UniProtKB/TrEMBL annotation:
Protein name: Uncharacterized protein
Domain of life of the organism encoding this protein: Bacteria
Organism the protein comes from: Luteolibacter ambystomatis
Length: 199
């Protein structure tokens, strides 16, 4: 389903009417960001507006939560954005690489310590189902662990690639000897994705 252009224009008119609040956008708990996300969800329930004030050029990101079907809607919203002083507006979170640490619900996750493997049987041609092995995996909070690994993948390879290239992922305890068990270091995932695309 396409997002009607007049609804997108209406969103940005609403946003511009709140210029006095734009200075709050760099705050993680910005009421304007929360209100903007609520408005975007009227266009598509998967859309959100996030701010990356730490980037070399601060960005407002129209994100889909890595939902492939909503990517055209995010792109349409970003493309229609007016000039917002101090910010660029982009669709989808860009790939950051693997040199970062994620803190999620009191646990640190380091992508450079993670490995992955691809089962022999892949359910969707051209896409990947993967198993991600992490050190010190605890099954007492599998929901939080899965959320964290999903956030790691989204930041490392980018939202578009997570949505379009990864059909599913499973989280497991990393074996003590991962390479003989068929695991590959996680930073090699973009190369494996590219090989899969080329078929």
């Amino acid at each position: 389903m396409n997002t009607p252009p007049d609804l997108i224009v209406g969103f940005w008119l609403w946003f511009q009417e709140r210029q006095a609040e734009h200075h709050t956008l760099s705050n993680a708990d910005s009421p304007l960001l929360a209100a903007a996300t609520a408005k975007l969800k009227e266009l598509d329930p998967h859309l959100s507006l996030e701010a990356d004030a730490e980037a070399s050029r601060p960005a407002l990101i129209v994100t889909t939560g890595a939902t492939a079907a909503s990517i055209p809607h995010a792109e349409a919203v970003a493309a229609a954005a007016p000039a917002i002083p101090g910010w660029q507006v982009i669709a989808l979170k860009p790939a950051f690489g693997f040199a970062f640490t994620l803190n999620h619900h009191g646990t640190r996750y380091e992508p450079q310590a993670m490995w992955f493997m691809t089962p022999d049987e892949q359910p969707v041609p051209g896409k990947l189902a993967i198993r991600v092995g992490i050190p010190n995996y605890t099954s007492t909070s599998p929901t939080y662990v899965r959320q964290a690994v999903r956030l790691v993948l989204e930041k490392a390879i980018g939202e578009r690639s997570l949505a379009e290239d990864i059909v599913s992922f499973e989280v497991l305890q990393l074996p003590r000897a991962p390479e003989p068990a068929g695991y590959i270091e996680l930073f090699e995932l973009p190369d494996v994705i590219e090989e899969r695309r080329e078929g």
